Amino acid sequence: MNSPTGQPGERWNRAAVWRAQHRIAAHDSWRKLLQRPVATGLVWLMVAISLAVPSALLLTLENLRPIVPDVAGSAQLSVMLDREVNRTSAEAVQRQIESWARVDTVRLVGREQALLEFGEQTGLATLLASLDRNPLPHTLRVLPALPVSDSALNRLIGELESLPNVNRVVADTRWVARLGETLVAGERWVLALGGAMILGAILALANTLHLAIDARREEILVVRVIGGSPAFVRRPFLYTGLYFGAGGGVLAAFMLWALSVWLTGPVNALFLLYDSPGQLQSPGFKYPSALILSGAIIGWLASWAAAERYFRQLETR
Amino acid sequence: MIEFERVSRRFGDLDALRHLNLTIDQGEMAFITGHSGAGKSTLLRLLLLLDRPSSGEIRVKGELTRAIRSHRVPRYRRRFGVVFQDHRLLFDRSVHDNVALPLVIAGFSPRDSARRVRAALDKVGLLAQEYANPATLSGGEQQRVGIARAVVARPEFLIADEPTGNLDPQLSSEIMALFEAFNQVGVTVLVATHDLSLISQLRHRIITLSSGRLAGAETP
Fold first, then answer.
1. How close is the nearest chain A Cα to the Cα of B58, in Å?
2. Which residue spans within A154-243 are E strands per DSSP?
3. How confident is the model at residue A1 (pLDDT cuts 50, 70, 90)?
C-alpha cells in the first residue's frame, strides 16, 4: 500500500486476504438467501425441475439400453422351408443365404430337433411323440448383419421369401429393431429437451440474479467509490448463483432418487414378467454428483453473465 | 498535492468544467463552493476517477491520473475517504459493519479491523452505537457514521460532497469540526459545499466555481 499512514506490518498476505474476503462473501450471500426462504426455495425448485426432467429421461434410456442388444440377439428371421425339402437341399439353401453380405449367420434347425425343442418348451412331448409324422419343416434361423434398419429387414425378408424351397419367413422380433431406432431417436430428443431446459434455467437464473444485484445497487455504488475492485463487487453474486445452482442440483438429485425408489417395484416386476434379468438401476452416485456439479456450474455462469451485464450498464450510465 | 491543469469536462454541449487550473496542497483543507451545476461534483468525480476529463490533466502527488490503468483504479480510490451528502450507509448491516467496509476491501485482518472501527467510531462519538442499525440513528449521527467509514482506513485525502446538505447549523458545524480535526493530523481535506455562512467562519481556502470556471479563491 502506498498510504503513508497504512501499516504494512499489520496487513495480511494476499492469500489470507483473498480467503477472508471469500469467506465473508460466501457467508453473507448464504445469509441473504436464508432471509428469503420462499423466494430461494422457488429458485431451487425451478433449477431442480430443469435438471431433474432431462436426467430422469436419460436414466430411463440408460435402463432400456442393456435390454435391447439382449433381444436383438434373437432378432432373427425364421425361414421355414417347404415340407418336402430334404436335409441336403436345406443345407444348400443355408449355404446360399450364408453367402449374402447382409446376413450374419444362418443356423439350420432340422425338423427332428425342432420337434424336440417344441415338445420341451410346450410340455407336449408325449402328445407329439404319438404323431405318426413330423409336421414341422426344416427351418433356417437367419441373423441379419447388424445394425439393420426396418426397410433393409423388409427387403431381406422379401428376398428370402422369393428363394425356391422357402415356404415363409417369420419375423416376429422386428419390433426390436424398431425399439433400437426409437431409443436412438429418444436419446436425441432427450438431449435436445435437456439442452433447452438447461438453457431456460440459465436464463431464468440470470434474470433472478439480475434482480438480486439490482436490489444491492446502493451497496455496489458505494463499494465502487471506496475502492472495491470489480472482483470484490462481483464475488457475493457469484456465490449467490453458486448456491442457487448447486442447491437446485441437490434438490434435483433428491427428486431423481425419489422417482427411482417409487418406480423400482413395478419396473422390476415388469422385467420379471419379460423374463429379463434386468433390474431398475438407481441413480447411484454418478447422477447426483453430475446434477450438483452441473447445477453449480450453471448457477455460477448465470451469475457471472448477470453481473457482467449489470456492471457494464452501470459504467456506461 | 492535487493539481488540475486546464481540465475541461463537456457533457454534450454543456461545459461542466472549463479549463480549470487548481492546486490543493498536501495537508491543506479547502472548500469548493458555487451554485448547483457550477461543477463541484464533476470536479470530485474526476478526482475519484468516476469520470474522465474531456481535456486537461489531473495529477495526484505528481502521478498522472490519466495514466492509471483501469485495474489499478480501485487501489487508487482507496487513497481517498469519501463522505456523501446522503451518507449512503447500508441499512442491511450494523454501524460496525458499515464502517468496516473499506477495511474489508483493503484486506485488513479482522482483529486489526475491529480495533480501527472502534477507534473511528470513538472519534466521531458513536462508539456506543457500534452494533445499532444505522437506520435507527438520527441524520447527524448517520453522517458521522459516514465520516467514520471515510476515515477508518486512514486515507491520504478526505473528500466530502455537500456533507452538511441535510443538517441543521449546529450539526453542520460539528461535522466541519470533525473534518478540521482530521486535517490537523495531516489528512488533505476537500469539501464541496454551498453553505457559505458556515465556511466563512472557518479559516480555510474557499475555491468558488461558476459555470465550470474558477470564479475566485480567497485565502484567509
1. 18
2. 166-170
3. very low
How far does B201 lie from chain A, in Å, by closest CA? 30
ipTM: 0.87
* Phi, psi (degrees; rounded to nearest 5) at B57: -125, 145
Q: How many domains are contained in chain B?
A: 1
Fill in the amino acid letter for B141. E
pLDDT (tens digit, 9 = 90+) per residue, B66-115? Answer: 999 988 999 999 999 999 888 899 998 999 999 999 999 988 888 889 99
- Tell if the CB–CB gap between B104 and A12 is shorter than 8 Å: no
Mean pLDDT in chain A?
82
Task: Answer whether residue B42 is part of any domain.
Answer: no
- Tell if the CB–CB gap between A5 and B77 is shorter than 8 Å: no
Helix (H, G, I), strand (E, B) or coil at A241: helix
Judge whether A11 is closer than 8 Å to chain B, CB to CB.
yes
For residue B43, give Cα distances in angstroms to B3, B28, B75.
11, 17, 20
Check A225 against B76: CB less than 8 A apart: no
Alpha carbon of A44: minimum distance to chain B alpha carbons (Å): 24
Contact check, Cβ <8 Å, B74/A229: yes
Task: Compute the average pLDDT of residues B140-153.
Answer: 94
Query: Where in the sequence is the domain holding B145, given as residue range(s)?
Result: 91-154
Asked if the Cβ–Cβ distance from B77 to A227 is below 8 Å, we say: yes
Provide the grid cell at B100: 468496516
Establish if B105 touches chain A: CB-CB under 8 angstroms: yes
Domains, chain A, in order of start with CATH, read 17-68+178-316 (no CATH), 77-171 (3.30.70.3040)
How distant, in Å, are the alpha carbons of B56, B58, B182, B191 from that of B185?
Answer: 32, 25, 5, 17
Kindly state whether B66 is in contact with chain A, defined as any CB-CB distance less than 8 angstroms. Answer: no
Asked whether residue B134 is assigned to any structural domain, the reply reads yes
Chain A residue numbers touching B156 (CB-CB < 8 A): 3-5
In a domain, B101, yes or no: yes
CB contact under 8 A, A11 and B107: yes
Any B CB within 8 A of A10 CB: yes
pLDDT band, very low/low/confident/very high, at A2 (cuts 50, 70, 90): very low
Mutate to test the interface with B, among A23, A222, A311, A314 (most CBs of B within 10 A): A222
CA pair distance A256, A102, nearest whole angstrom:
42
Query: Longest Cα pair distance anywhere in chain B, in angstroms?
Result: 52
**B122 grid coordinates:** 470513538
Size of interface A-B (CB pairs under 8 A): 74
**Amino acid at the residue B12:** G
**Local confidence band at A5 (pLDDT 50, 70, 90 cut-offs):** very low
Round to whole Å and give the CA distance between B28 and B59.
16
Nearest-angstrom CA–CA distance, B211 and B175: 28
CA pair distance A276, A280, nearest whole angstrom:
11
Cβ-based contacts of B87 with chain A (< 8 Å): none
CA A54 to each of CA A63, A195, A198, B58: distance values in angstroms, whole numbers, following the listed order: 14, 8, 9, 58
Handedness of CA B15, B21, B23, B29 (dihedral sign): negative
